[in-house]
Design brief:
It is built from 17 helices and 11 strands. The protein is α+β, with helices and mostly antiparallel strands and 484 residues long. It has 4 domains: 43 residues, no CATH class; 73 residues, no CATH class; 165 residues, Ribonuclease H-like superfamily/Ribonuclease H (Nucleotidyltransferase, domain 5); 119 residues, no CATH class. The strands form 3 sheets. Strands 7-6-5-8-9 form a 5-stranded mixed beta sheet. A hairpin with a 5-residue loop joins strand 10 and strand 11. Helix 6 runs parallel beside helix 8 and helix 13 packs across helix 14. It starts with 12 loop residues before the first helix and ends with a helix.
Length: 484
Amino acid sequence: MYTDNWLSGADSVVEASEKFCKARSNLADASMDLTKLVSNSLLITSKSHDQFLVSGDEPNTVLGLKWCNSQDTFSFVAINPDTSVEIASTKRSILSVIAKIFDPLGLISPFVMYGKILFQELWKLNVSWDEEMPSDLKSKFQKWLLSSQCLKSFHVNRCYFPELSWGELCNVKLHGFGDASEKGYGACVYLRVTLEDNSSKVSLVASKSRVAPIKTVTLPRLELMGALLCSRLVDFVKTSLKLDSNTQVVCWTDSTIALSWIQGETSKKDVFVSNRVRDILELTPKNCWQHCRSKDNLADLITCGLLADKLVDNSMWLFGPSMLTNTPCHHKEGSTLVSDTKETSTKGTVCLSVQGEPESPFIDLNKYSDLSKALRVTAYVLRFINNCRNVKNKLKGSITTEEIDLAKLKMIYLIQREELSDEIKTLMNKPIPQVSKLSKLDPFIDDKGLLRIKGRLKFSDLDYDTKHPVIIPKGPLAKLLIRF
């Protein structure tokens, strides 16, 4: 019961008719009469139901959503262009227009996100609530409002697979997508079923969108926030649809950095990253996270926003990318960490090779008398490498503390490869001999390829770096550290 409406459903026409009769009888005992009947099947209306039948194709409101019962689809109300375009000139009026859009399932979240991003841009200009907005933003808002007229023709099936019966469905899976941009981050969840002939069908279930914080956050961290939003939405959908606990869940991201965080060791990350990775892993298993191409990540439509005409013409938004509809999927599900996950801008998750010829530092530390300056130069070099490899996700702005920390790890890694190459090669196969100068330190190679001290502190509750200090060879880096 919702206010004065009773909402229910059934798997057959007979069961639905019986439910209506029983509900009418029970409510009549409490002197409450059902006065109208709306259904997606006219077959349940027998002669005794004629007086309650609501006819016509006009949409009915169900929990705030517009439902056209004859087509069994959800629809959306376009923003009135005659009034909204005229009043959309101040921050107050724009917020009023955005608040009128009701989309609890996120079926048009790319369109809503477009308006949210514009509103945040207006907010950053620090204009007052009733001050006239700049002309360029005003024209963008009006373009967004006018595009909403295309929503009149946008209908979403209430039933995920209306042409199928439950008996035809098997191998039900949930696929979640998370993504982020400098403007915002979002997530969407799709239901994928395999039919008896091994073909597949996919349908959008729900999506969520968030604008990026006004305080600048690095893109890898925003990608991680998108992954967290995805895990929460997947868990919500799985619970709401009452799916079996064994239902397979696959979560996708196109960020190799965020994926390496999720599938790495939480204890070696900073607080921001480790807290969000912990929350993600409480909701979704580590091995369900996979890498996908950017063009297959439909959450990308949310992060930048879309005008309504673009959204209506995008069939993939409702029916999923080709990687899900094709059988078999282009990507292997359930595999472990994707290859080529190079961490170039984060703390504690850098993937470094320990094979091949010894490497040398790419800056001459003898030319520097200050450790901070040497680290900043190294960080800029690493950023340049990252931007060459990831053209779509370039790092910009001032050097962050995460990049400085990564530069320090990379610097130590290269110095160790130059000065302690023999010990490292030996440790890869067997313990180092007693004649080595490092034998008393009981050294080992960690998962980032760094040489560390084992020792009895490993049984303590101290943090990882304190329990297992990095070994710094004698040389210019050691001098810089001591001076620092």
